[in-house]
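From the shared-data thread, chain only:
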Amino acid sequence: MTPANFEQEKNFAACYENLRDVMKLDYSVALGVFKCLHEYLSDGLNSNVEIDSAVKLPPNANFGASVKIDGEISFVVAVLAEKKIFHEIAEKYERFQLDSLDEDFDAVSELLNIATGHVIVRIAAALNIEEELEPPRFGETEKVFGVIKLLVNVGTFYLYIGRDEIFPAQ
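Structure, as tokens:
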């Protein structure tokens, strides 16, 4: 394990302790989910992704997309950010200019759909269980919940890993 990976895992452990009631997953499962998402987000955004801390979602960072993994280990994964940063994440992922909030929601939903697809493949390989992905959800949430604050080259965004849906069905 490299020093950078050790630091990320240590930072994740601190976030997990603060968000245990939100995640409601065993630590090893939550860490595996985070590592897979971290790897994919780093590649998909072509950026180093650093953990800052566990925080309550700021009211202005309520633009997001989520995907629910359903099965024996059900949970929801979401990416949320301020509107401007959400747009930049979407464009960074798509690698071309996007012209509307709907296109931003579609891009980040696709990013999450693919990332969570990688997560369920790893869960199947590690635990020999098959999970299903529900269709992505997106929008602006008015809820307040615990998230992991992440830093990337375009700014700050927030990762939600938890049991509860944060967006209504589309």
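The mean pLDDT is 91.
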